[in-house]
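FAQ: What does the model actually see?

It sees only this:
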Amino acid sequence: MHTEAQASLLARPDSRRYLEPFIGRERTAAEGARELGVSVERLLYRVRQLRAAGLLLQTGTRRRAGRPERLYRAVADAFIVPFALTPFADLEAQIVRQAAPLWELEVRAGARAGRDRGLTSRLIYRDTTGELHSETALPEGTTWRAMHPEPGGDFAGVYHLDDAAAREVGALWEALRDRLNRDRRAPGEGRPYLIRTAMVPLRPDDLADVPALGAPGPRP
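And it is asked to produce this:
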């Protein structure tokens, strides 16, 4: 990358996604729009923006149904974007910015599902081991399993594992990702699900300011 404008477009997920259908292959605007699940007019606006920034080229035309359609391809099959050219100070700042939309979507959809199921209170108690818990209070007479009749749910926490167990869990993570990639459908086919997974090794000092992460369990 040579300019801040190019780096900014590539570093922001909301703009980079419009280049992705054309990286490493030729596509018409209609094909790219179908892949992204947006209108052709919306994608063409972004195409003009990406061409003006020098990130996208018109490579030719393809005749279909009696009329030629323009073909586009990214100027490179891979891009290296130095942080010095991006709006982000470093990798951590970029990850925070990129993760924010998915995190906000998860919170919004999860809170909506909770309200729909009558989750309106919190329960604070100490269990038989002496550990204090704070969690969403279930309506009387129901269970978490009964509250989630459709596929879904989430949990979060810090788990202390030995190397063998960590490798085994990592392999399960990879198998899950492969399964999801194999079974995913195009936008508009099937029901959309937000699936977010993470397994990150920590240092002891990472937990100093977030003691609530010390007890794994369901959320919220």
